[in-house]
From TrEMBL:
This is Ubiquitin-conjugating enzyme E2-binding protein. InterPro entries: UBQ-conj_enz_E2-bd_prot. It comes from Friedmanniomyces endolithicus. One of its GO terms (cellular component) is nucleus. PANTHER family: E3 UBIQUITIN-PROTEIN LIGASE E3D, E3 UBIQUITIN-PROTEIN LIGASE E3D FAMILY MEMBER. Pfam families: HECT_2.
Length: 416
């Protein structure tokens, strides 16, 4: 065994991923020393586990997909000594995935919790950090999903009247009131909650325990008052090279509607009075944001940037490539023995650039903006996730390789 900074490091690192499209299980084993005649790799009789033995140490992982029942099978170790072992095994037409990952028989689309159809008039919204109730149960009588990203641009293509009706502008005022006209704008009314993939939009009067503070010359943020008052004066790093007072900004004051746009990762929800309030990990929300942006923009590469709102320029940017949007993996370095549903992300940090130049970096690259804190969290999560991968799998050409956990159906199975 090795010890680095007093942390135990096994001599064997096992990693497996289920390549669903080609029904293949890819397995990598990284050894601290080269293999020898005593090195063994064995599949269990039920096809659930892989065990590797090397120099007196034995490590096993539960595979992300079962290979079916058979006798114990010993995999062939290369004759030439090597520190890196690779195996590719075929998976049958109907793998027994439910045994390896209870939620691995899943719908392939991006799962997004807390959309309008899942919420009720009893739904209450709280701060995920201090649990202060922001929107009380019964406050929102109606929930509506916001239009998909880019809906405003589609206004240019709308007809001002039906093609088979006379061209009459007499009803333009009526169209404006109903939200059909090209110059109509989104409004938020008390008692109505508007829902997007990553945000809620509420009328200010529907929200309690929030105060608005300027965070720079162009932007104000809703602050969770109880959290802010308890942590007044304390500081923590929020972006490389900067410090800010802890004030739990959980969204922005939307200038077009004058409503509060609150970020879902900062919230917890009690869907009804019969359910307890719960939130989800930021990691799953961030991966969902990547998947949503990729789907809406029709790209697999995204330029992520955190902006300096006082200048309107991005101050840091990262290029990402959603190399495998839906992957089920197992790793001996994970904090769980269960298989994990992830997005495999290739990423590299880019140079600062004007927002206008982002679109010139290739027609196949989209854009996605995060707050400074979310951008830093994304980068930190990707960097730390490299520990799940064997050393040689952490780089692909000029890209770093990271993994982000995805939402699975078990996450939303208790919703009504």
């Amino acid at each position: 065994m090795n010890r680095q900074s007093d942390k135990y490091v096994p001599n064997i690192h096992l990693y497996a991923e289920h390549l669903q499209n080609i029904r293949t299980l890819s397995i990598q084993a990284s050894l601290s020393t080269v293999s020898n005649q005593a090195t063994k790799a064995t599949l269990s009789a039920d096809g659930h586990y892989l065990t590797v033995e090397h120099e007196g140490e034995k490590v096993a992982i539960r595979l992300p997909v079962s290979l079916g029942s058979h006798g114990d099978a010993t995999l062939t170790i290369p004759a030439a000594p090597t520190k890196d072992l690779t195996f590719r095994l075929n998976v049958g037409q109907k793998p027994e995935t439910h045994d390896a990952l209870s939620n691995s028989v899943h719908k392939p689309e991006n799962i997004i919790p807390w959309m309008a159809g899942e919420l009720t008039p009893e739904t209450a919204v709280s701060c995920a950090t201090c649990h202060a109730e922001i929107v009380r149960s019964g406050q929102i009588r109606q929930w509506k999903d916001l239009p998909s990203e880019g809906w405003a641009e589609m206004m240019d293509f709308w007809h001002c009247h039906k093609p088979d009706e006379p061209h009459d502008h007499a009803h333009e005022a009526e169209n404006v009131s109903r939200g059909f006209a090209a110059n109509s704008r989104l409004t938020v009314r008390p008692g109505m909650g508007l829902v997007g993939p990553m945000d809620f939009l509420f009328a200010a009067e529907d929200c309690s325990e929030l105060e608005v503070r300027p965070c720079d010359s162009r932007k104000v943020s809703p602050i969770c008052s109880p959290f802010s008052s308890r942590n007044a004066g304390s500081k923590e790093p929020a972006f490389p090279g900067r410090e800010v007072t802890i004030t739990k900004a959980i969204g922005v004051l939307d200038p077009s509607t004058e409503g509060f746009k609150l970020r879902k990762p900062c919230l917890s929800i009690a869907v009804s009075q019969k359910t307890s309030s719960r939130g989800y990990s930021h990691e799953k929300w961030l991966s969902s944001a990547l998947l949503t942006a990729a789907e809406s923009q029709g790209v697999m590469r995204l330029a992520l940037h955190a902006s300096d709102w006082s200048s309107g320029h991005p101050i840091s940017m990262m290029h990402t490539w959603l190399f495998a949007p839906d992957l089920v993996i197992s790793s001996s370095a994970a904090d769980t023995k269960a298989a994990i549903r992830v997005v495999k992300v290739l990423y590299r940090e880019g140079v600062s650039a004007d927002i206008e130049t982002l679109g010139k970096m290739g027609s196949a690259e989209g854009e996605l903006e995060f707050s400074k804190e979310e951008w830093c969290e994304m980068r930190s999560l990707l960097d730390r996730s490299a520990e799940l991968l064997p050393g040689k799998a952490r780089r692909f050409q000029q890209w770093n390789v990271g993994l982000l956990r995805r939402f699975v159906e078990d996450d939303v199975s208790d919703m009504p």
